[in-house]
Write a structure and sequence with these properties.
Order of helices and strands: EEEEHEEEEEEE
CATH superfamily: Umud Fragment, subunit A
CATH topology: Umud Fragment, subunit A
Number of helices: 1
């Protein structure tokens, strides 16, 4: 049995500063086997896909790749890749957490001048919305 996961497009922040999405009707939803979901402990209704724009996560995740986001996994774990909203922007970044609670958003791109690390002190954590953990990235060959 296969499960269909909608491909979404982040559109804008609403008046409550929550990211709104629309279903990408120009592309096909991604299909995943029930066994894959079960093996990884994913609930299909909590998965969404997004097409990556930009090279901030290159070479790990390239522009145009499709990523699967598990929206039920939004408690940050150091070194994992997450979809987040920070200062009104939708970002895919690797999160690192310091002992004092500071969260660093890092790109994998070695060009740190174009893609600098963003740091959020613990007392300002509410400005960061963690949408979910990126659990798969795929590209067309």
């Amino acid at each position: 049995m296969k499960h269909y996961v909608d491909r979404l497009i982040p559109t804008a922040l609403n008046y409550c500063r929550v990211l709104e999405w629309k279903i990408d009707s120009t592309g096909n939803p991604n299909r995943y086997r029930r066994g894959w979901c079960d093996k990884h402990g994913f609930v299909p209704k909590n998965l969404v896909t997004v097409v990556v724009e930009g090279d901030a996560m290159s070479p790990s995740i390239e522009h145009g790749m499709s990523v699967v986001i598990n929206t039920s996994d939004n408690a940050p774990s150091s070194g994992k890749v997450y979809a987040v909203v920070y200062q009104g922007a939708f970002l895919i970044r690797r999160l690192y957490i310091e002992i004092d609670g500071t969260i660093h958003l890092k790109s994998d791109n070695p060009d740190k001048k174009s893609h600098p690390r963003l740091s959020i002190a613990f007392r300002y954590r509410e400005v960061l919305q963690i949408l979910g953990r990126v659990v798969q990235a795929q590209d067309n060959l």
